């Protein structure tokens, strides 16, 4: 890490009275300058509850938009303006409206990895960690779930009496891992514990010793008495795993699990963003209010 650049960022942060938030999948240099590191929704809640009025959100666009939905009065900056989410882009507003017409009795449940426009016509949002509890509390028998068919399939397995209509979306990082990638590591390291994100496909999930969100994977590995872990999610999480567990070993399957968009953010981006107050997130107020309702329902139904 460039110490001079880091010092400039910290000085600018103080001058702007800003907070820097970083997702677990960001590069280590970004995680190290952040005031908080976490998953997308928890970071949005931090943004909502903090006293700072300027939030530098080091993640991808839908995450910064979620923070703006919850905190419209604050200035939300996205350091890498072109950091998007291919899975979120797979769900189009107009196509969802058509699907809703075909299933008028279904509740629309959108993964937080979705656009503001999609959230605005959803009944509730979910995270990978809260989805099961929310579906349990949702008093409907038919559910449109989008955009991730893999997370949707994982949830549906737990509710055989509910009818799910899945969007044909997926995470390009998680879906590229095959069962063979996992089995190779299990053969190589006999006592390895397999920790899998539910965005992975069903054949990979079946090989898991534990399935959970990014935060849950970190918690499980930290509390486990085992020493060897196969981490089947975006490899940026390894930085936090090693910080919390310096004596444990962490491995990634296949050729690696890297989200190109999550790795677009650099220290230079953060510095220039704070210097010029650029790439501010703006959302139409009418759409924001509708999207807020879906996020607010997530909070209520996850209790």
UniProtKB/TrEMBL annotation:
Keywords: 4Fe-4S, Cytoplasm, Iron, Iron-sulfur, Metal-binding, Pyridine nucleotide biosynthesis, Transferase
Record protein name field: Quinolinate synthase
Residues noted as binding iminosuccinate in the record, renumbered to the chain: 23, 40, 111-113, 128, 197-199, 214
Species for this entry: Clostridium homopropionicum DSM 5847
Pfam families: NadA
PANTHER family tied to this protein: QUINOLINATE SYNTHASE, CHLOROPLASTIC, QUINOLINATE SYNTHETASE A
Cofactor binding mode and count: Binds 1 [4Fe-4S] cluster per subunit.
Location, primary (coarse class): cytoplasm
Source superkingdom: Bacteria
Gene: nadA
